[in-house]
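Extended Data, panel c. Modelled sequence:
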Amino acid sequence: MLYIMPKNSMILLPAAQRKLETLGENIRLARLRRGLSSAMVAERAGISRQTLSSLENGAGSVSMSTWVQVLFVLGLEKDLERVGRDDELGRILQDAKLPTRKRARKDQGAALGELALKVAAPGGLASEGSVLNGAGRGGEA
């Protein structure tokens, strides 16, 4: 006796199923606007008419490559480039993870700049006998 296992079908969330059905209907309308028969589109896409019918009805069992192939046949492949382009949620999440640097207050920055000038100036803080040039550590620098 030969036992054939049934094909595993993915259970889709209702919202995802509605999106597939809408996409399938839009593809059907695009095909009809172009005056193409289902047999012609199926042949050009290299799929059966039944598969095209499943796609146009929003079946979740149709592979992504089949969806893409049908879009190419209908000249709608440029729409694929828009997927994820304006990902507002993704950008918000990405920005939330970015490290934020704390800036020094303006008056603090000015004081640091003045200190740097004093250190670099001849006879300044880095002159002989200062801690900054190594003297004063209990020996010769």
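The helical segments are 14-33, 38-45, 49-56, 64-73, 88-97, 106-120. This feature is highlighted in the accompanying rendering.
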